Amino acid sequence: MPNPPPPETAADVLRAARAVAAEDAERAAVATYLRLEPGAGDARSPEGELLADRVRTTWDVLLAADPDVTVQDVLAVLGDLDLRPTPARAPDADAGPTRLAAWRPTGTPLPARAARDAETTAVRDAFVGGRLLRVVNHHDTPLVRAAEIHADLAWYAERFAPVTAADVHAFLDTGRWPDPRPGIVPAFYDGFASAVQVALPALDDLGLVGWFYPPTAFLDVPAARQREFARAHEYGVLDVPDGPLAMTWDELADLSTRHEVCGHTATHAASADVRDADAVRAEVTGPLRRLTEVIGRPPAAWAWLGGTDPDPDAPGDRAVLDAGVRLWTSNTTLRRVG
């Protein structure tokens, strides 16, 4: 079990918040904590109680600095302080961002302060009950960073246990993990070929389980048009190698035998973009059907661009829930929905 971090000062929190806000999330492995919901039993631990206290104090510090922050920003700051081999580099005071709140997709409004307070309380309650998961989110993992990525994943493998979707369900049922070490989920978004070329060999070498979230339409785009598609749909491309940007369906099928595959729409869409039957078919039901056909089982989880929580009144969200996806990944929570 990793040693608990020392208490941070308000200056430590603000330094980490400015570093995370200045960092390009597409270019970094962004570490965070997620709460797990709903939980059966009580996995209460001193570690969870300490983390819950740190959520409260970090929330107070960030809110005083930027009234638009959410608990997502709190969890990213604590992830940077606790869960990264090399924390994000804080910018110079005069050059750093004035805004600490994370980007939100167009059409995804900032919740009212009362709702943000309530979500912060819900996160703290989950952590007190031991319902927490450590996650490191990646996008493009370019060849020029292969040694760094392998070293980072090795750091995680030395300290944390791999986590499968079955492990999550077992924990939600029983309050127990199969390994005494805390679990880690390395997640890989957007279906990049670099995830197969760089991250996958490291995961397999180190015994970690990756969770892959590919937008299905990207895998169908001819290689010559993939850069254009990526730019049009706000993918973060770190380098421009010779050859395809997207992984192939055969590569996805192969990695699914050892890792988790999750739904992430067809094009890289946010829930707010999916409001009619045609959009639902294109971005939700079609991609889920295709993934199921290719990997031989339903996708383990779902995530929208922007990491929004499920809203049964939103057409796209309702379609995901009706399709039988069992886990929903948001910016703050891994929630069982089926």
TrEMBL record:
It comes from the Bacteria. Coiled coil: none annotated. Residues 88-111 are annotated as: Disordered. GO terms for biological process: carbohydrate metabolic process. Residues 88-99 have a biased composition (Low complexity). Transmembrane segments: none annotated. This is Polysaccharide deacetylase. The lineage of its organism: Bacteria, Bacillati, Actinomycetota, Actinomycetes, Kineosporiales.
